[in-house]
Each structure stands twice: as structure tokens, then as C-alpha cells.
Amino acid sequence: MAVIFERVALLGIGLIASSIALGARKHGLAGSIAGHARTAETRATALELGLCDQVYASAAEAVKDADLVIFCVPIGAMAAMAKEIAPHLKPGAVLTDVGSVKKAVIDAIGPYVPGGVEFIPGHPLAGTEHSGPRAGFASLFDNRWCLLTPLDGTDPDALARLVAFWQGLGAKVDQMDADHHDLVLAVTSHAPHLIAYTMVGVADDLQRVTESEVINYSAAGFRDFTRIAASDPTMWRDVFLNNKEATLEILGRFTEELFDLQRAIRRGNGQQLFDYFTRTRAIRRGIIEAGQDTDAPDFGRATKEKGQ
Amino acid sequence: MAVIFERVALLGIGLIASSIALGARKHGLAGSIAGHARTAETRATALELGLCDQVYASAAEAVKDADLVIFCVPIGAMAAMAKEIAPHLKPGAVLTDVGSVKKAVIDAIGPYVPGGVEFIPGHPLAGTEHSGPRAGFASLFDNRWCLLTPLDGTDPDALARLVAFWQGLGAKVDQMDADHHDLVLAVTSHAPHLIAYTMVGVADDLQRVTESEVINYSAAGFRDFTRIAASDPTMWRDVFLNNKEATLEILGRFTEELFDLQRAIRRGNGQQLFDYFTRTRAIRRGIIEAGQDTDAPDFGRATKEKGQ
Q1: Do the chains contact at B222 and A251, CB–CB below 8 Å?
Q2: Phi/psi at A173 (nearest 5 deg)?
Q3: Cβ distance B280 to A197 under 8 Å?
Q4: Residue B308 pLDDT > 60
Q5: I need a surface site. Which of A11, A22, A58, A130 has the fewest CB within 10 A?
Q6: How many distinct helices (H) and strands (E) make up chain A?
Q7: Contacts of residue B1, Cβ cutoff 8 Å, sequence gap at least 6
């Protein structure tokens, strides 16, 4: 694949940025990669792993001459950083981010974007529960969605190049407005994360069940919650603080529905439970058909054994 | 491995029974396997896949001469079946089950167990979201726990043989009393399942977000919920109806905790959220160390790509 941006600057070098770097190198999408990280340790790791060609303690220095600048820091850190880098951005540069919330990112970065720089907010729906520069891998975005929420008047050519960059990393790209993005993500990601965090916290609190019991017997459902609830605390704090309204709306609907099912359990209404559980199964089938998960009956462990 | 039970009878032939059959054959744990299923289609499938040597439309016929009889039907069907098979059980036979709740199973089966038959309730903590005789695979129980809740006065030799059978299938075996089992499972399995079902139902209801959006953008959290929420509706209806008290207690604690976190979001209390999310991360590490899940940063997809 041809180089799409001659110089790419990554602001923050964690799971997402390191995966972008590895993917961009593998697919030849960038001429060179600059990186900014606050700590000397992260900068050293980025050089050691070959993620970046140059690393900088200063974000302002990192963005110099960059054709694509990607904010890969927690949302809470974006406004100050945008203010800092603004005077140093190259005219014609594309500025984007990977934040999980889009309205708040537009509020944080938007006011500082200088004329001649194209700001196109973005959000790759990919991640693991691991964080840091060593957590990345080149295939993280393979067949995953990247949602862009372009503002009115975005230059079509800049947009096309950013789309091509994400597609080059293996992602499928979709576009929507920022408000809608934040609602969709509240449903598919933010509320589920808070719920998972909560359930794991409850298990941890319960004195009559030991921690080793919770850990040993987690296979039947709880394990998937712990995976979700192990995600980066700083990132998730910022997600909830920055997508407050949509998350609280979805959580309100969730508790309403949960109370209704609790009532069905208390009253022994088996038919209501059965009907509800049957309906949710269909959604799972849709996700498998859409290629967003595997249908392997053993969840991918020991597939060789299957059917024997 | 040596044959542990000369003849094994499986009552109900779904995911768990078919996995027991495949594992028992692979490891040579049973001389022969009889199966009972209500539908002719399931019986034909069991023969076609080689799960059973003989299949029976009648449970009473299936248990004749069996040294080990395993109830693999939903909990709601156990009492009537126990009554039906009781007069046909071989003296000295071991009777067990794979139900997700143990007090209710003891209440359902216990009264019908004839003298000279050893009833040892059991629960393998293994499963997938698939059901039916074609869903089984021999390694389903590998490195998973099987919890036995023996009653007072259980014959130690019968217990030892049942333990050896489950270990032969690859499982680790633990013993506890039925009350404690039901509380532990309410935390690690039953409450998480109800929560996952609820969240998937909420997503399905939300008119402003299309179904295809929910499906496409499920990767970031929601996908794991849909996996849990795709489990067998009949089985789960019976679980909740039969572990009512413990499940409602845990759900009560869950909503209490969730409300506290919602309040933190509404008030913008980032420190509380950060501290909570940091605490839950430690539990995840414990589960990985206990070998109940993998630490692969890409969740097992495309591991070859890692670090490139």
C-alpha cells in the first residue's frame, strides 16, 4: 500500500497509538512516525519497539511537520494539549483523535484548531483490557469499525485520506454526527462497561464468598465481566465524565428493565423470563452474522478438539 | 485411562451431555453409553454423532443397568423424571446431575432416590452459548471446575468414583454444601447472566439506535454481553426460578452499587470512578493467574500478528 501521510505524529503512546504505529509500518501507510509521551520510560519503549522514528517530551515538537496528528491521550488531557500544539501545526495537516466520546472531544479540541488545519474526530472501536505501549499489535483494527464524526465544511480530500489511512490499518469506516455517536456508544460500550465494573465490585465486596471462589468459579459468565472491567481506569473515568447524559439515560433504561425482570423472578413468572431470553438470543446471531465475533462453540479455546 | 463406570446413562442430550459423551469416549471412562431424549430427532443425532450406543424414548429404559446416571435436563424437568426412573435404577448406581442450582435439584430429585442408590448432586462450570447435541465437544470441561455438593452420609467410594469420572473428563473437582454453592453461583454466574440479558434487551428496545448499529458496533464491550445473553432460555428461566433468593440478594447489592456509581457520574466525581475501576482490575489479574482465562492481548484472535 502507498504512503498516505508522509509524517504521522502520535500524541500519547498507549495501546491504540502503538497499534496504529505497528499497523502503519506493516502496511506502509506512513513515511515516518513521531511520538510524544510524558514519561521517559514510555518514550524509550516506543523507540525500543520501533513504534516511532523520533520521540519527544514536548507535544509541540512532535507535531512539527506532521501531515497527520492523532490525539491518543485520555479525553481529559486533550484541551490543554490542543492549545499547546496549535501554533506548531503544519498548514494542511489533518488532526484527528481516537477518543471514545465525540461531543466532548470536539468541545476540547475544536476551539484551538487553526485555520488551514482539518480537524476530523474519530473513534476506532477496538481495544483490549491491556494498556501501555507494549500492549499494541498490528491487527488490532482488522475488520473493526472506525467511526468518524466530521464537522460541517470538512475538506473532502482530507476526509478521504483519513478514511484511506484507517482502511489501510484494516478497519471499516463509517461516518455519523457526534451526538448520535455518543448515544450509540453509550449503548454498545459505555453502559456495558459501567455495569461490568459494578458487578465485579459487588463480587469483591461479598464477605460470604471468598475471593478465590469468585476467581476460580468465574468461567460461567463472570469472567467476561472481569475482562471488560479490567480496562484502563483513567480512560474510563474520562469516558463517563464526558458522555454523562447518554450514559445516564441508558443506565436509567437498564435499571428499569432489570427491576422488571427481578420482579418476574420474585413472582415466579417463568414465561416472561423465557420470552425475554429468547429475544436477546437473536441479537447475538446478528452479531455473528455481521462478522464481529466468532461462532466457535468453544469460544476459540482448543478448536482442534471440536467434535471429537 | 481405565473405565470408571461400566454403563453410563445420560438423561437429556444437549450441550453438556454430548460433551460428557465425547469426553468419556475419548478418555475411555465408560464401557457403554445410553441416552434418553424426548425427541426422535435428538435421539437420531446422538446415534449419528456416536454419542450414545443406545438411545431410548423412555428415561426408565435408559437407566436400566446403568452404573452412573446423569440428569442433563433443565431443572424444571428433574422431579418428574426422578419419579419415573426411581423403580428402574440399579442397586449401587450413582445418580448425579449437571444443574446450575443445587438446593432446588436436591429438593426435586432427593425424595425419589431409592435406598442403595447414591445421589451426589454436581455442577460442571462449563458451557457455551450453544445448545443441543451438536454443540458438544470433548474438551469442554478441560481445566474447568466441577462442583459436587454431596449430602450427609454419601458413600465415600461412590463419591471417589464420581470425582475420578469428572477428573477423567479434564475437570478440577471441588466440594461444598448446596447453600453455599447457590450463593457462589449467584455471584459468578446467575446475576451476571440476568444483567447481560437485560442490557441486550435495552439495546434492542432503543428506537433511536438502529439494530444494525448495535450489531456492527458491538466490539467495545457489548459483544461479551450478547455472548452471555445468548445462552439457552429454558435453562436460564429454570436457574432464576430455582435460585430466587440468592440471585435477588446479589441483584439488590448490584443496583445499590450501580446507583452509587451513577451518582458519581452525575456529580462528576472522577476520583470515585477511578478508584472503583482500579480495584476491579485486580480481580481480573487474579482470574488470569488462576488459569481461568487467557491473557492474550488480542483475545486470542490473530495471535501470530502480536508485536509486529
Answers
A1: no
A2: -115, 135
A3: yes
A4: no
A5: A58
A6: 13, 9
A7: B27, B28, B29, B168
**A262 at the B interface (CB within 8 A)?**
yes
pLDDT tens-digit series, residues B245-263: 999 999 999 999 999 999 9
CA-nearest of A119, A136, A126 to A71 is: A119
Cell numbers representing residue B224 in the block = 461479551
φ and ψ at residue B35, rounded to 5 degrees: -135, 145
Residue A291 pLDDT > 90: no
Which of B181, B258, B255, B189 minimizes the C-alpha distance to B228? Answer: B189
For the ranges A46-60, A132-146, A179-193, B288-302, the lowest mean pLDDT is seen at: B288-302
Asked if A298's CB is within 8 angstroms of B226's CB, the reply is: no
Contact flag B290-A230 (C-beta cutoff 8 Å): no
Smallest CA–CA distance, residue B122 to chain A, in Å, is: 14
* Residue contact B189–A217, C-beta within 8 A: yes
CB atoms within 10 A of CB B96: 25
- Domains of chain B from N-terminus onward: 5-176 (3.40.50.720), 180-289 (1.10.3660.10)
pLDDT score recorded for residue A224: 83
Minimum CA–CA partner of A15 in chain B: B297
**Cβ–Cβ of B224/A227 closer than 8 Å?**
yes
Give B109 to chain A, closest Cα distance, Å: 20
Is the pLDDT reported for residue A32 higher than 50?
yes
User: ipTM greater than 0.90, yes or no?
Assistant: no
- Give the angle subtended at the CA of B222 by the CAs of A243 and A211, to the nearest 5°: 95
Q: Which of 217-246 (A) contact B at CB < 8 A?
A: 217-231, 233-234, 236-238, 240-241, 244
**Cell 471417589 sits on residue:** B160
